[in-house]
Amino acid sequence: MDLSSPTVRCVYSRLVPTGELTPHPQNPNRHSETQVSMLADLIRSVGWRFPIVVSKRSGFIIAGHARLLAAQRLGLETVPVDFQEFATESEEMIQLLADNKIPELAHRDPETERALMERLLAENTSTAMMGYLPKEVYALMREAAVLGELAHQVIPAMELQPHEHYDYIVLVFRSDYDWMNALQALGIRDVNFSVLKDKKKIGIGRVIDGTRVLSRLLPAQGDSQPRPVGNDQHAPDHPAADAGVHGPGTAVV
Questions:
Q1: Each residue of 224-238: pLDDT tens digit?
Q2: What DSSP line would sit under the chain, residue for residue?
Q3: pTM above the 0.70 mark?
Q4: pLDDT higher for 46 or 148?
Q5: Is residue 6 classed exposed, middle or buried when 0-12, 13-18 and 19+ CB atoms within 10 A define those classes?
Q6: To the nearest 10°, the Cα dihedral for 23, 28, 31, 36?
Q7: Does 88 score more than 90 pLDDT?
Q8: What confidence category does residue 188 fall into, taking pLDDT thresholds of 50, 70 and 90?
Q9: Strand order in the sheet with 78-84
Q10: What Cα–Cα distance (Å) separates residue 202 from each residue in 149, 176, 193?
Q11: Residue 19 to residue 34: CA distance in whole angstroms
């Protein structure tokens, strides 16, 4: 393939000089240097698979602004253009937005994506022209190893049974320091932190008896010290006393 003139493999109306094309003035998309470089590599490698779409009505580009920038990056003099009919300005706006927004709603299956990536990496294919940064490739391939490690980890048992109704509060800890302090303050032990290799971590939560938390944080009336919480994996046979609402030692139902 002539690298200066990628093969056109898509349907188009005619080849148009890049200088004659006008980007849509209301195009909301901003294309980074990284994106344009990746797309330029893709076009140079596999040729033109999609044309630039131009409205016959306004003469503006409706789809393919990044492809035009990539062509200019490659120094191409002409690009394939598909001239299409649009009845109104609203139709142009709809297509302009939908062309980029609808693909964002797709969800990639990670196992299938990883299998494809493994195959292409085995063929020494550049991942950049597929839109993957090195860190994204690493994260994708590392995920399989992470899942394998998690399969062998023992997650601490929960005190409360799933699929039952409980009122609850969710606390989010954004640092290991706060997380460790919370474990100590609440008397939670035997927690597997799921610390993985290469500084990668997966957050892991705990479901514990709220009454026991209150017994730790709010001493019952007449008690000078909070009652001990005990081992998190072994809930007490009887709920701890309520924090003063029903009186000391009264079981909460």
A1: 444 444 444 444 444
A2: --TTSPPB-S--SEEEEGGG-B--TT------HHHHHHHHHHHHHH-B-SPEEEETTT-BEEE-HHHHHHHHHHT-SEEEEEEE--SSHHHHHHHHHHHHHHHHT----HHHHHHHHHHHHHTT--SGGGT--HHHHHHHHHHHHHHHHHHT--PPPPSSPTTS----------SHHHHHHHHHHHT--S----BPGGG-B--------HHHHHHHHSPPTT-SSPPP---TTS--SSPPPPSSSS-TTPPP-
A3: no
A4: 46
A5: buried
A6: -50
A7: yes
A8: low
A9: 14-17, 78-84, 52-55, 61-63
A10: 11, 12, 8
A11: 23
Task: Give the type of residue at 145.
Answer: A
Per-residue model confidence as pLDDT tens digits over 92-109: 999 999 998 999 999 888
Structural domains of the chain sorted by starting position, each given as residue range(s) with its CATH number in brackets: 14-104 (3.90.1530.10), 110-151 (no CATH), 153-253 (no CATH)
Q: Report the DSSP pairing between strands 14-17 and 78-84.
A: antiparallel
Determine the Cα–Cα distance for residues 90 and 166; give it in Å rounded to an integer.
50
